[in-house]
Amino acid sequence: MDILYYILAGAGVGLAIGLTGVGGGSLMTPLLIMFGFPYNVAIGTDLLYAAITKAGGMVTHTRQKTVQWRTVGFLAAGSVPASLVTAQLLSSVFTDSSEYQGILTRSLGVMLVLTATVILLNGRIRNKTTHSQGAMAEFFNRHTDGVIFFAGAFLGVFVTLSSVGAGAFCAAILMVLYPRMPALHIIGTDISHAVPLTLIAGLGHLILLGNVDFMLLACLLVGSLPAIQVGTRLAARVPGRLLQTIIATLLFAMGVRFAVF
Questions:
Q1: pLDDT of residue 201
Q2: Residue 239, class by beta-carbon neighbours within 10 Å (0-12 exposed, 13-18 middle, 19+ buried)?
Q3: Confidence at residue 115, expressed as pLDDT on a 0 to 100 scale
Q4: Domain ranges, ordered by start, for the chain
Q5: 196 vs 186: CA distance, rounded Å
Q6: Which carries the bigger pLDDT value, residue 183 or residue 204?
Q7: Does residue 65 come out as left (phi exceeding 0), alpha (psi in the -120 to 50 range) or beta?
C-alpha cells in the first residue's frame, strides 16, 4: 500500500510539473517529509529524482538549440564544486544525520520561500529587468560572468542542503542577469544546469551521506514520468497561472513553517 501511495505522489507532482512548469524539488521534498521520511532522505532522494526527470528536458532543449552552454558552464563551475564541498562538510563535521537536520530544515524553508516569491513575481521580474537601467544594471553587464559563477556557488550550497532552487530560483537569476535572453532559452539553460547540479548533489548524498532510498526513487519515477507527459498535453486547456499561484502560496506557507519552527 505504501508503494502505491509513493507512485501516486510521483504522479501528482509529475502532473503539476507538466501543467505549471513548477520545479519538482519544491513540491516533492515537502511531500516526502509529510509522508514521514526523514529530511535527509527526502532531500537526497529528491535530488536524484530531479536529475532523472530533468534529463529528458535537457535533451529536448539541446536538440532545439535553446541552451546557452557558456552560461551553463559558468553556473556549473560555481555550483558543482560548491555542492561537493557542502556534502563533504556534512559528512566530515557531523557523525549522524540528526546533527545536521536543523541546517537542512532551515535551508529548505528559506529556499521554499524564495522559490514561491519568484513564482508569484515572475512576470514583474521579467518586465523590470528588461527595462532596467542604472548602476546595478551596469555592474551586472560588466561582471556577468563573475556574478553567474557566484550565483552558481550559492545554488550549489543550498540545492544540496534543500533540493530546492535549481529550477524556478535559478531561472529568476538568469532573467535578472540576461534580461534579453528569450524565455525558452532561459528554460533550456536552467534545466541543462539543473541536471548536473542535482546529479552531483544527489550522488554526494548517496555516497557520502547515505541519504537515498532507491525503492522510493523508483516508485516516484514510475508515477511521475508518464504524468509529466499527460500534464504537458493538458497545459493548454488549464489555467496554468492560477495553478502556479496556488502552488506558490502553499510553498510559501510551508517554507515559513520549515524556516521558523
A1: 97
A2: exposed
A3: 87
A4: 2-260
A5: 16
A6: 204
A7: left
Identify the burial level of 186 via C-beta atoms within 10 angstroms of its C-beta, where 0-12 means exposed, 13-18 middle and 19 or more buried. buried
3-state secondary structure the chain: CHHHHHHHHHHHHHHHHHHHCCCHHHHHHHHHHHCCCCHHHHHHHHHHHHHHHHHHHHHHHHHHCCCCHHHHHHHHHHHHHHHHHHHHHHHHHCCCHHHCHHHHHHHHHHHHHHHHHHHHCHHHHHHHHHCCCCHHHHHHHHCHHHHHHHHHHHHHHHHHHHCCCCCHHHHHHHHHHCCCCCHHHHHHHHHHHHHHHHHHHHHHHHHHHCCCCHHHHHHHHHHHHHHHHHHHHHHHHCCHHHHHHHHHHHHHHHHHHHHHC
How far is it, in rounded angstroms, from Cα 208 to Cα 211?
8
Percentage with pLDDT > 90 across the chain? 43
pLDDT, tens only, 226-254: 988 888 777 667 776 777 788 788 888 88
Q: Rounded distance, CA 197 to CA 151, Å?
A: 13
pLDDT one-digit tens code per residue, 13-69: 888 877 766 667 788 898 899 889 999 999 999 999 989 988 888 888 898 899 999
Cβ–Cβ under 8 Å, residues 190 and 198: no
- The answer to whether residue 218 scores a pLDDT higher than 80 is yes
